[in-house]
Amino acid sequence: MTVFYRRLPRFEYLSPRTIDEALNLLGEYTGEARVLAGGTDLVPQLRRREAATPKYVINIKAVPNLDTIHYDEQSGLTIGALTTIHDVAESPIVRSHYPGLAQAASQMASPQVRNRGTIMGNICNAVPSADSAPSLLALEAVVVARNKSDERVIPMSQFFAGPRKTNLAPGEIAIKILIPKEMPSARSVYLKLSPRHSMDLAVVGVAVAAACRDGICDEIRIGLGAVAPTPIRASRTEAMLRGKRVTTELIDEAARNAVTECSPIDDHRASREYRSDMVYVLAKRALTGVLAAGGSAN
User: Fold this and answer.
1) In the chain, which residues have pLDDT < 50?
2) Which of 225, 186, 184 is nearest to 207 (CA)?
3) Residue 295 carries which DSSP code?
4) Which helix (H) or strand (E) holds 136?
5) Which of 56, 181, 226, 261 is 20 to 30 A from 31, comparing alpha carbons?
6) For the packed helices 248-260 and 272-287, what is the interaxial angle rounded to 10 degrees?
7) From the CB of residue 59, how many other CB atoms can be counted at a distance below 10 Å?
8) Residue 135: closest CA among 92, 175, 187, 174
9) Nearest 5 degrees, angle CA 227-CA 233-CA 237?
10) pLDDT of residue 22
11) pLDDT for the residue 1
12) Under DSSP, is residue 67 helix (H, G, I), strand (E, B) or coil?
């Protein structure tokens, strides 16, 4: 299929210098405005006429102090709304404490997009195949959103409302992502299946974060992408692993169970059957990587 790129439609461009100014503008133009950070999702959508043209585009790129990565030994990791995908992928803090998230970021799009696009933009675009979403789900991240008068915390498990839909309320801007301190002896991984590695959207994405002690799975969290209308947690599979002794048979059974928690579609990138098969393959690899290394699978 040939995609013809057209000129951007007409809209009024606004560039606030503070978060309060941005929130005032968004409140004033509720229903008529879109927020832009990196623009790597919004601009192509507008150019291709895949999204309704807003009357106003509010670019928050000039707002200070939203592009930080900070780790606290007690509270965990904070990722600002303007932190680029590249900075997350290359951050020594993220690589050390949350390697699965660093892997996910490093496998997203092209270097040019990673240098411009943001992790927050990736989840706010809310496509089922968003690479960062499975890892953020597995790490039990939360999104902090603000409006003109209040601030609230949205668990990542409640953030996605449907394809390209989030549970952000009108007038809200997502300002940061918080990830709790990692579990003791925790390991995490993200595995992605796509035709051209990072250049393509995920056909299947699997993230696992787990901790084992003396061969027992103390804690396990599994995030899946591109296999349901939104990124999801494989909660039933987690339950069958938690507190159990790690064996190759248990890992295989869990990977097969993960398939039953999915509802993939047929599209031009892959059939439903192929996606289901690959959930099993990637889940088994990911579970083996994090559980067998910390346990005693045999």
Assistant:
1) 1, 296, 298
2) 225
3) S
4) helix 132-138
5) 226
6) 150
7) 17
8) 187
9) 100
10) 98
11) 46
12) coil
Instruction: Report which secondary-structure segment, H or E, holds 106.
Output: helix 99-106
What pLDDT is recorded for position 216?
96
Strands, E assignment, 30-104 = 33-36, 56-59, 69-72, 76-80
C-alpha to C-alpha distance for 173 and 120, rounded to whole angstroms: 10
The CA distance from 55 to 269, in Å, is 33
Q: Please report the pLDDT score of residue 203 as a whole number.
A: 95
Bridge partners of 120, per DSSP, are none
Q: Hunting for tokens 């993220």 — which residue is that?
A: 94
DSSP state of 151: E
pLDDT for position 183 = 85
Q: Is 249 exposed, middle or buried (0-12, 13-18, 19+ CB in 10 A)?
A: exposed
- pLDDT tens sequence across 215-274: 999 999 999 999 999 999 999 999 999 999 999 999 999 999 999 999 999 998 899 999
Q: Which residues contact 196 (CB under 8 A, 6 or more apart)?
A: none
Structural tokens at position 179:
């990830």
pLDDT at 294 (0 to 100): 56
The token pair at 127 is 């496509």
Structure-token pair, residue 228: 């349901």
CA 117 to chain centroid, in Å, comes to 13
Contacts of residue 13, Cβ cutoff 8 Å, sequence gap at least 6 = 56, 57, 59
- The answer to whether the beta carbons of residues 137 and 156 sit under 8 Å apart is yes
Single-letter amino acid, residue 74 = Q
| Nearest C-alpha neighbor of 154 from the set 130, 183, 177 | 177
Structural contact between residues 46 and 53, judged by C-beta atoms closer than 8 angstroms: yes
Structure-token pair, residue 79: 């990722």
